[in-house]
Design goal:
It is a single chain. By secondary structure, the protein is mainly α. It has one domain. It is built from 2 helices and no strands. The radius of gyration is 20 Å and the shape is elongated. The termini are far apart.
């Protein structure tokens, strides 16, 4: 019976860009949500705000 081969350890340099992308996405999502929350008034419905939030986040992720 043979032992399974060990996978090489992921280097820190390979993971840093993923952390940076996650941090940037989280900050953008927070700023978009905060801006929409501050802009929401009595004339806007909650469904329209959620739709706008989804569209803005999708556009940001594409960019």
């Amino acid at each position: 019976m043979s032992l399974p081969h060990a996978t090489p350890a992921v280097t820190r340099a390979a993971v840093v860009p993923l952390y940076a992308a996650g941090f940037t996405t989280a900050n953008c999502a927070h700023s978009i949500a905060a801006g929409l929350g501050a802009e929401a008034g009595a004339e806007h419905s909650i469904g329209l705000n959620l739709l706008l939030l989804g569209v803005l986040l999708a556009l940001y992720d594409v960019a």
